[in-house]
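Something for you to look into today, if you have time. Could you write out one complete protein record for me, on any chain you like? Leave the record below and I will have a look.
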Amino acid sequence: MPKHDFPTDYVIYPEPGVLIAGHFLVKDSYQAVRPNGMGDWLITFTLDGEGYFTAENERITCRKGDITLLKPGVSHQYGTSKGKEWHFLWAHFSPELIEAKYLSDHKLINLTFENEYARTRIKDAFERLIQDYRERNKYWYELCQNSLKEILLLIAQRQNHSLDPRVEEILHILSKRMNQTFTIDDLAKEVGLSPSRLSHLFKENTGKSIMETFIQMRLNQAALLLEHTDRNASEAAAEVGFENYNHFAIQFRKRFGMSPRVYKQHKQETE
């Protein structure tokens, strides 16, 4: 291979490791036809409008919140649906870029992320991927890998543990309001359900009530504080939102089989 004198500020790809990423807003004249497929994976995330993929005998439509993953070597065509525009983020990446365990076995998958938090998380990861790809600052390639891996893990999580999007939204709200108070009525309004319907749906999806789940989140966080910080039991209880220490201690013992103070002492002795 001939020697090339690249600019000193241009960082080339590690070999092998193809990665291309971008952001398209295209009309219905846009299409790509590849009878022999590609050597790389293709992933898209639809922000708005409508596109389509045809892979061998399968055709899918891509709408807002849909993420699509196409396997290498699959004959395909994709483009904007007739009479529409298609606004989407995309990336091509070589199989060597990401460990096989993070990739799907299916030739073509299309998943809808209805939960706004999940959509935002995927969009943010995609935008970081595109930004690092374009800027090519030091460690850009590794940063792109991390963003891409996050997206693929969210896809795997969605495939293997699908919750109702309203339940996903409630779990996100609970995780952000660890030390706040709220009612089931408050949560129900945020996802557009009646309190009774939300309670039933949440229990059906997770096996626990909303308050059981919230208390468990608080206790898990308190245990981490006791194990990894200098917080004492009272401080940990207050930090995760328990106003009554005795109530905290009772709930902690139920979950971990020992008092918070004994738990902290035990963890310190086993370090």
Notes: The mean pLDDT is 90. Residues 79 and 100 are 27 Å apart (CA to CA). Strands lie at 19-26, 31-34, 41-49, 51-55, 58-62, 66-70, 76-80, 86-93, 108-112. The chain has nine helices and nine strands.
